[in-house]
């Protein structure tokens, strides 16, 4: 049984709109503690638009052009505010390998490896993320069906363990720095781009 705590609810006015927030503190079996954030509209519709977004410090905060994370986060927040729903921000940097290892993967990418090859060269799988806490978040909010804002078929399959799920695509304009990254997401990770 998963052990977690839920914070109080607070207000979060943003450049994208006005949200309510709660944090979920997850106690993992390995002793790690992860603190995730849920930003949501109030009231939530019966079938909320949901974006499950894994932390990407380089893209979300520093505006890295090597990935599509920052623009996906901004697009998701705008659409969620407009349509009603929830952003679940998971603390799983670098597809679950952590910031330190992500920077090492970036260094390998600088030598010509793609994102999957770099993670595997460091001894990780293509994608190390876990979504168990999301099921608990859905239970907490009494959510039974969602419109999932994603291009990742693995994420769709994971969410279908917890709720009825319909996909809503999220398409971000590529740039000169992330074109190959997006091709790898499609070819090696099966993303629906």
Binned strand content: 15-25%
> Cα distance, first to last residue?
36 Å
Which stretches are low in confidence, meaning pLDDT under 50 for 5 or more residues running?
none
Total number of distinct structural domains: 1
The residue fraction in helices comes out at 25-40%
Which class in CATH terms?
A: Alpha Beta
Q: What's the CATH superfamily, by name?
A: GTP cyclohydrolase II
> How do the helices and strands follow one another from N- to C-terminus?
EEEEEHHEHHHHEHEH
Reported for the largest beta sheet, the result is: 8 strands, mixed
Domain GTP cyclohydrolase II: 9-162
Cofactor: Zn(2+)
Organism: Helicobacter didelphidarum
Pfam family, one: GTP_cyclohydro2
How would you describe what is shown here?
InterPro entries: GTP_cyclohydro_II, RibA, RibA-like_sf. Catalyzes the conversion of GTP to 2,5-diamino-6-ribosylamino-4(3H)-pyrimidinone 5'-phosphate (DARP), formate and pyrophosphate. One of its GO terms (molecular function) is GTP binding. Pathway: Cofactor biosynthesis; riboflavin biosynthesis; 5-amino-6-(D-ribitylamino)uracil from GTP: step 1/4. β7, α7 (153-159) and β8 form a beta-alpha-beta unit. This protein has one domain (3-92, 129-189): 3-Layer(aba) Sandwich (Rossmann fold). α4 (99-110) packs across α5 (115-121). It is globular, with a radius of gyration of 16 Å. With 193 residues, it is α/β, with parallel strands linked by helices. The mean pLDDT is 91. The chain has eight helices and eight strands, in the order βββββααβααααβαβα. It starts with a strand and ends with a helix. Helices cover 36% and strands 25% of the residues. Strands 1, 2, 3, 4, 5, 6, 7 and 8 form an eight-stranded mixed β-sheet that branches. It has helices at residues 57-61, 69-83, 93-96, 99-110, 115-121, 132-140, 153-159, 179-189; strands at 3-6, 10-13, 18-27, 33-40, 49-54, 85-90, 145-149, 164-168.
């Amino acid at each position: 049984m998963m052990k977690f705590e839920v914070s109080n609810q607070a207000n979060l006015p943003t450049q994208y709109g006005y949200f309510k927030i709660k944090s979920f503190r997850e106690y993992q079996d390995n002793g790690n503690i992860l603190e995730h954030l849920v930003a949501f509209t109030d009231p939530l519709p019966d079938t909320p638009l949901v974006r499950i977004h894994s932390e990407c410090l380089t893209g979300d905060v520093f505006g890295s052009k090597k990935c599509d994370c920052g623009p996906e986060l901004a697009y998701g927040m705008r659409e969620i505010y407009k349509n009603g729903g929830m952003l679940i921000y998971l603390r799983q940097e670098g597809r679950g390998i952590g910031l330190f290892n992500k920077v090492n993967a970036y260094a390998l990418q600088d030598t010509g490896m793609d994102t999957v090859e770099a993670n595997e060269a460091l001894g990780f799988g293509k994608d190390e993320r876990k979504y168990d806490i999301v099921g608990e978040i859905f239970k907490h909010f009494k959510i039974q069906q969602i419109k999932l804002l994603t291009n990742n078929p693995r994420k769709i399959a994971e969410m279908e363990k917890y709720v009825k799920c319909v996909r809503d695509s999220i398409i971000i304009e590529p740039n000169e720095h992330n074109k190959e990254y997006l091709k790898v997401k499609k070819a090696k990770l099966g993303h629906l781009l």
